Amino acid sequence: MSTTGAGTSGASATGANHDPLAALGSLPGVAESVESVRKAVDRVYGHRIMRRRSNEITGEAALRGSRGSAALSGADWALEEVRRRTDFSGDDQARVVGAALRLTAESGELLSIWRQSPLRVLARLHLVAAADNGDAVGRPRRDGEPATETPAAGAAGPPLIGLALPDAAEVEGRLDGLARLVVAGSSAPALVTAAVVHGELLALRPFGSHNGLVARAAERIVLIGSGLDPKSVCPPEVGHAELGRAAYAAALDGYASGTPEGMAAWIAHCGRAVELGARESTAVCEALQRGAA
Q: How far apart are CA 288 and CA 121, in angstroms?
């Protein structure tokens, strides 16, 4: 990676630059992605239904975002099945869907803490996602401890994240660097910050399990807290799922490479995911306007 001190490329912005994330905003194509996301988000917020029924749109976006995040973690359920269920304790896939739903609900409660103590928020997110995982819950993994996405993802085939697993010392150093960036703030667009938080957590896999769910929840927190999507109606998880696991993994490889091209491609991928989430909520608004939902 680049911005938190572990990368080697020219895309890195460390040392004398006090706002390393800002340098990523100037990478080729990033400004275009940022503008495209802004327009997509504005379309949702400008819809007449949002003025009267925004709480319904927020609730539906939460449900659809949870379903998308769970799908990437190996539990690809139909939306209506997620909506219908009340018990998520039955099997591995049900537990993954339940964890995704809990994380989405919890994210809104952690916004005020994120900018002051992101590591505390990440620990809380993992605790919420993996409350039944024993002593490893809510703390970074130690040397020798594995990191698995989820049991459901393992059952679905090859691991979604094929990168080498950083050791505990690297995880600690890079998490501290990421936390410093969040606390310091940045002039970088919200999309850039959200993409870096998401990508860094996926690359590090700091916890023993559920890292993908936690990383996507953290991305959502950045987008909401930044003011880009304050009502949380543009769920990026919907877009990540729609773009597919293969594209997600390929874009993450670009992030992990630390090259300008790879970083720009990851940011663009995250931008496209937000756009697709916005499109989903626009469709919900249209359905409500027609009286079809």
A: 34
Residues 48-82 as b/e (b if ≥16 CB within 10 A, e otherwise) read ebbeebbebbbebbbbbbbbbbbbbbbbbbeeeeb
User: For residue 110, what is the enclosing H or E element?
Assistant: none
What is the Cα–Cα distance from 96 to 163, expressed in whole angstroms? Answer: 22
Question: Which residue type does 56 have?
Answer: E
Which structure tokens are listed for 106?
């919890």
pLDDT digits (tens, 9 = 90+) for 114-152: 999 999 999 999 999 987 665 568 889 998 888 887 666
The Cα 178–Cα 5 span in angstroms is 9
Q: Is the dihedral of CA 239, 59, 34, 25 positive or negative?
A: negative
The runs of H, that is alpha helices, within the chain are 20-24, 30-45, 48-72, 79-84, 92-107, 111-114, 118-129, 151-155, 168-184, 190-204, 211-225, 236-243, 245-257, 260-290
C-alpha of 146 from chain center: 21
First to last CA, the chain: 43
What is the pTM (predicted TM-score) of this model? 0.91
Question: How far apart, in whole angstroms, are the C-alpha atoms of residue 213 and residue 21?
Answer: 23
Q: Cβ(152)–Cβ(97) under 8 Å?
A: no
